[in-house]
Design a protein that fits this description.
The protein contains eight helices and four strands, in the order E-H-E-H-E-E-H-H-H-H-H-H. By secondary structure, the chain is an alpha+beta fold. The protein has two domains: 98 residues, Glutaredoxin (3-Layer(aba) Sandwich), CATH 3.40.30; 105 residues, Glutathione S-transferase Yfyf (Class Pi), Chain A, domain 2, CATH 1.20.1050. It has a four-stranded mixed sheet, with helices on one face. Strand 1, helix 1 and strand 2 form a beta-alpha-beta unit. Helix 1 runs antiparallel to helix 6, helix 1 packs across helix 8 and helix 4 packs antiparallel against helix 5. It is globular and about 50 Å long. Bound molecules: glutathione. Glutathione binds next to loops.
Length: 225
């Protein structure tokens, strides 16, 4: 059996590999990182991820960071699980990478500005960071909504890890007052995601981690802007 550990925290983008691993049906364990204790910046954790970020995957003692890399690796390591569509050539493969990078490098930074604007400005300017973030996100939500207009999943009839990434992005900004209901196809995609047994298992793992943080008084709740 392959020993796989995923370092995660509930609500974070670690949801993407948690879903991917559940969908892949491989055995893995999660290790909860306590942000409120600064554990992600601790010397021990930095041995696993020197950038002090979640998620980190440890597989057979080797660590791997960055969602795009983790998904790409899991897809290559467990090809039979179909985490990403089979790419016919180098261009198709690079385009899949571009899709995942769109989530991590374009959308994720905007998510952060919408979710925790006070990390990017003084308290009195946080609202304008949130507004600018929402403005930027609208364009991309429209694009995603159009893309999903005639198909259930990003790549058509087959689910992929790209859908897990979009699901996290949608959920994260929904909880920060971004008007997600204006995007009917994306909203329907979210509902489809929630119906998948693997997604339900992933969310149950997160809920367990959240209950643990609650019990320890370590839940981070950003102030509303
Ligand atoms: N590019 C990284 C981003 C990871 C990231 O920003 N993770 C957040 C949680 S969603 C984090 O660990 N934040 C803690 C911090 O920045 O101090 C990836 O895609 O894995």
């Amino acid at each position: 059996m392959t020993a796989i550990t995923l370092y995660m925290a509930p609500g974070t983008c670690a949801r993407v590999p948690v879903i991917a691993l559940e969908e892949a049906g491989v055995e893995f364990e999660t290790q909860l990182i306590r942000f409120m204790k600064g554990q992600h910046k601790s010397p021990d954790y930095k041995k696993i991820n020197p950038k002090g970020k979640i998620p980190a995957l440890v597989i057979e003692g080797e660590s791997l960071t960055e969602n795009v890399a983790i998904i790409t690796y899991l897809n290559q390591r467990f090809p039979e699980t179909g985490l990403m569509p089979q790419a016919e050539d180098a261009l198709a493969s690079a385009r899949q990478l571009a899709d995942l990078c769109f989530c991590s490098a374009t959308l994720h930074p905007i998510v952060t500005r919408i979710r925790i604007p006070q990390f990017f400005a003084s308290e009195d300017a946080a609202k304008s960071v949130w507004e600018k973030g929402c403005e930027a996100m609208q364009e991309y939500f429209s694009m995603i909504d159009d893309h999903l207009s005639e198909k259930p999943w990003w790549y058509g009839e087959s689910w992929s890890a790209m859908d897990a990434y979009l699901f996290w992005i949608y959920w994260r900004v929904e909880g920060a007052d971004f008007p997600v209901n204006d995007y009917k196809n994306f909203s329907a995609h979210r509902t489809r995601m929630e119906q998948r047994p693997a997604v339900q298992r992933a969310l149950a793992r997160e809920a367990e981690a959240m209950a643990q943080l609650e019990a320890e008084g370590l839940v981070f709740t950003p102030k509303p802007v």
